[in-house]
Design goal:
The chain has about 230 residues and is of the alpha+beta class. The chain has nine helices and nine strands. It is globular. This is Carboxypeptidase-like regulatory domain-containing protein.
Length: about 230
Amino acid sequence: MKVTQTILSCLFIMLISGQLFAQEKTKGIIMELVSGEKIEAAHIQNLRSKVEVQTNRDGSFAIDANINDLLLIKATGYEQDTVFIYDSSLRRIYLNRINTPIELNQVVVERMTDSRLAAEIQREKVAGKYSDASQNRGGIRISPSRIFSKEGKQARSNYKLLVAELEKRTVDRKFTDNLIKEVTPLDGSELALFKERFRPSYKFIQNSSQETLRVYVMDSYKKFNEKK
């Protein structure tokens, strides 16, 4: 009898824990990409669970979502976008107005969602190309107008800016405070200094497993102490 009660108690605790976990909220604010104006009544849908919510007057929202969920964002007059949930931090999501060209600068690039960033990278890559593979004649065809035109040069400059932001985000999502704190006692200003001095390259991050990163942090921490 006691064994049965124990099992039932454990199952009850697991059920309650599961419900609490399911009720965790992902919070965010929807804003206009260039101006930063907050967007009211934007629709947010969790594509996995189909749960939907709307933003408040201040552009804020809260929705049930787990890690690796994908949110679809829609608002009247704006291009729809998607947001991948990779952690529980507060999100600022920026939408671009329909048919409004984006004049890129560092601030605007940093505001883009991952899906918008990927789309802009592809667009600028195509716009900045100065050669094509000819389907009719074969071989590579060079276009001087694309090489020397203001538009072509701007597209190539924008492409570099966008790719740099993509690489920065990739590093930031793996070289995290939590990872460093797991294997070192660093915190506060020392943690910030360590991250600045020993920030790994994009190429290294691409080719590293989580365990490799831990070893890298531990080795870097030894060097960090030696320099102090």
